[in-house]
Amino acid sequence: MGMIIAIISGKGGVGKTTATANIGLGIALNNRRCVVVDFDIGQRNLDMTLGLENRVVYDMIQVMDEEASLRQALIKSKISDNLYFLAASQTRDKTALDSLKIKQLIEDLSSEFEYILLDAPAGIESGYEHTIEFADTAIVVVNPEVSSIRDSDRAIGVLDSKSQKVKDGFDVDKYLIINRIVPEMVESGEMLSSDDILEILSIKLLGKVAEDKGVIDASNQGVPIILNPKSMAGAAYRRIADRLCGDNVPIEEPKVQKRGLVGRLKGMFS
Amino acid sequence: MKSNQYSMKVFETTIDDDNKFISFMSTNHELFKNHLILIQGNISKKISDYLNDQSLKYINNFELPRVKKIETKYIKPQEVKEIKKDHFKILTAPLRSGQIVKYNGDVLIFDRINSGSKIITTGNIIALNIVNGDIDSTGDFIIIPNTNQSNIVFHGIKIDNGLLKNKLNKIEYISIDNITISTISKKEFIWV
Ligand SMILES: Nc1ncnc2c1ncn2[C@@H]1O[C@H](COP(=O)(O)OP(=O)(O)O)[C@@H](O)[C@H]1O
Ligand SMILES: [Mg+2]
Questions:
Q1: Which structural domains are found in chain A, ordered by start?
Q2: Which of A2, A34, A41 is nearest to A20 (CA)?
Q3: Rounded to a whole number, what is the largest CA-CA distance in chain B?
Q4: Cβ contact A102:A134 at 8 Å
Q5: Any residues with CB less than 8 A from the CB of B140 and at least 6 apart, and which?
Q6: pLDDT digits (tens, 9 = 90+) for B151-165
Q7: A82, B31, B149, B178 — which has fewest CB within 10 A?
Q8: Integer distance in angstroms from the first to the last C-alpha of chain B?
Q9: What residue owns the CA closest to ligand 1's atom 25?
Q10: Cα–ligand 1 centroid distance for B19 (angstroms)
């Protein structure tokens, strides 16, 4: 039985898709079989982030409606043989989702993969409840700003009342990723500190990811930032994936980057 | 002449079924031990023995002077059970944005009340952690830490957050035009 992890947030644009792609790849590079599923129907972009957009033939809804088999619809990553991808439907609307069919799909995936990552729509969207319904773990992505935190708090509240695991009397494990931290701004007090955020949301910390311009570029090129050995954000995702694989890696605080002379010169020209 | 005046609570009832009456009285002994019990209609020996045994004071077939009748809802045994169940709630998980707790009784909350959440209760509230969500109570009191963000409405009156300066404050209902705010603790509790 695989571990079913929903990647969630309160509002959109905080970095769920980026996190899903990078963590999925990180897990696969740790030699675990992993599948990432795009549940953000209508705004799919996980395929792009993974550089697989031109490989999509069948989508998740077609599998659920038995118009295609799971084997036909699963796309293997070019980067790792352990990573597979299942696309969201671009054409159907979110009401196409049906609990029983989702349950079946997730059970099928969970018999083949060790990790099943579900890239959720934002917590306010109707597809959100479907994504979390059968998850046993949730990774909450927030940005260090009040509105993101408050909306995530709400999404956690919905998770705690709507998931099947909770209805069965168990807890859904909840982990937090704080994304787009700007260390300079935390230092100067302009940005909420991680401790403040953790106190409000009262869930376990999984990782802290710095703001990194390279992330946007990496997504556009379909080469996740985790493959870039120089990126701080990439390193943070690697540590997060290692933690999910059971390694006891300490949390690292994003640091203010002190540039040397060469770095400063490079900075001028980049 | 030396005189005193008292007002007392009278519980008026008729008895159809001795056993039902006795079981009702037993479960509600705490509630009625200081009441005067007025039984209209006949009383069996079983009942009078029971009442004497329990030292409950009672009178039989008596026309009360004009008095204020208070809610009679709790006289039916089934409903009494419901009131009991709906009496006291303990919340140990944080209350999150969008969650509303509506409750007919007292609420004790150990964890955070986050911004965007709300507690509405007819009873008392004791909040021991950070309060940023809203509170609406018509109980006897609210015990609450200092808070800038919370919207607190007590018996329909908006409480000024500036008055809740201490680590733990008590907002208390004395009468409709007298609500007091007092200090319970000026500083953080230190547990040994
Ligand atoms: N750590 C980061 N640093 C810089 N940009 C980021 C970071 N994480 C995400 N982004 C960018 O933010 C935007 C939204 O991210 P995305 O993962 O699509 O969010 P979501 O799936 O939550 O809507 C994208 O353009 C992405 O490249
Ligand atoms: Mg997304």
A1: 3-269 (3.40.50.300)
A2: A34
A3: 65
A4: yes
A5: B124, B172, B173
A6: 999 998 889 999 998
A7: B178
A8: 59
A9: A216
A10: 70
Token readout for A255 is 């640091």
Helix (H, G, I), strand (E, B) or coil at A50: coil
What are the tokens at A173? Answer: 């494990």
Which residue puts its alpha carbon closest to atom 26 of ligand 1?
A216
- Interface confidence: ipTM more than 0.85: no
Tokens encoding A213: 């311009």
**Which residue intervals of chain A are DSSP H helices?**
16-29, 46-49, 60-64, 70-73, 99-112, 127-133, 146-162, 164-167, 183-187, 194-201, 213-221, 232-244, 261-269
Helix B18-27 to helix B77-85 angle, to the nearest 10 degrees? 20
Give the CB-side neighbour count of residue A242, counting CA atoms within 13 A.
Answer: 13
The pTM of the full predicted model, rounded to 2 decimals, is: 0.75
Report the alpha-carbon distance of residue A135 to residue B18 in Å, rounded: 55
Contact residues, chain A, for B117 at CB < 8 Å:
157
- The pLDDT tens digits for B14-39 are 999 999 999 888 877 777 878 899 99
